[in-house]
Amino acid sequence: AAPVLRDQFRMTNVGYSRVVFAFMLAYTIMNGVSGPLLDRLGTRAGYALSMAWWSAAAILHAFAGGPWSLGIYRFLLGMGEAGNWPAAVKVVAEWFPARERALASGIFNSGSAVGAIVAPPVVAWVLLNFGWRLSFVLVGSSGLLWLAVWWPIYRTPKARDQETPPPRVPTRLLLHNRFVWAFTLSKVFLDPVWYFYVFWFPEYLKRVRGFDMASIGKYAWIPFLVAGFG
Fold first, then answer.
1. pLDDT digits (tens, 9 = 90+) for 177-230
2. What average pLDDT does the structure give for the chain?
3. How far is the C-alpha of 199 from the C-alpha of 3, rounded, in Å?
4. pLDDT band, very low/low/confident/very high, at 82 (cuts 50, 70, 90)
5. Half-sphere exposure of 151 (CA within 13 A, CB side)
6. How far apart are CA 106 and CA 114, in angstroms?
7. Is the four-CA dihedral 170, 42, 187, 16 of positive or negative sign?
8. Whole-number Å distance between alpha carbons of 3 and 206
9. Are 150 and 91 in contact (CB under 8 A)?
10. For the chain, which domains are there?
11. H helices then E strands: how many in the chain?
12. CA–CA gap between residue 142 and residue 138 (Å, rounded)
C-alpha cells in the first residue's frame, strides 16, 4: 500500500522514511520488552495480547488522515509486531525438544514467507477494487480471526511434560557470549536487505521501473518466494 499512501498524502522519500522509522523504532524498543513481558504473562496471554494489539493497530491505519497519523499508527503496529516472534519462539521451546526446535522454527518462519508471497497480489487487488482503507481493515481482521481460533486451542504444557529447563543465564553473560554477538552481527548485515524488500521494493518498482499497482501485485512477491525456499 506504500505507493498509494505516498500519493494520497503527498509524501516525499524523506517523509515516507520517517513513517518507516516510526515502525522500526517501536519494533526495536519492544523487542527488548516483549521477551520479559511474555515470561511474566505466560505464552498464551502474552501472545494473545501481542496479536490483539497488532490487529487493532493495523485496523487503525484505515483512519489515517496524513503522514503524522500514519506514523503514529505505524509506531503502534511496531509495538505489537515485536512480540510475535519472541512468542512464536517461546511456543517452540515449550512444546518441542531441543533436537526438533530448529525444524519447528524453520516451519513457522516459512509461514511468514508464505504470507509475504500471498499479500502483494491480494492487497493490490483489494486496493484497486475497494480502496486502501479496506485493505488495512482486512489485514487487521485476519489477525483477530487467527486469535479467535488460537486462543481456545493453545495450552501451555504442564511442567512434567517439558524437558528439564536449562538454567537461566544472566544478561551480562549473554553480552559476553561470542555466539550472541555473531547472531547480532548477522542481523545487522542481513536485515537492511530484508527491510528494503518489505518497505521499499514496491516503491522502487513504481518510482524507478514505472510499474502500476496491478503490476506491483504481480511481481512484488517474487523475492519473498525465494526467501521462503532459503
1. 888 888 888 888 888 888 999 999 999 999 999 999 999 999 999 888 887 776
2. 89
3. 10
4. very high
5. 13
6. 12
7. negative
8. 7
9. no
10. 2-159+170-229 (1.20.1250.20)
11. 12, 0
12. 6
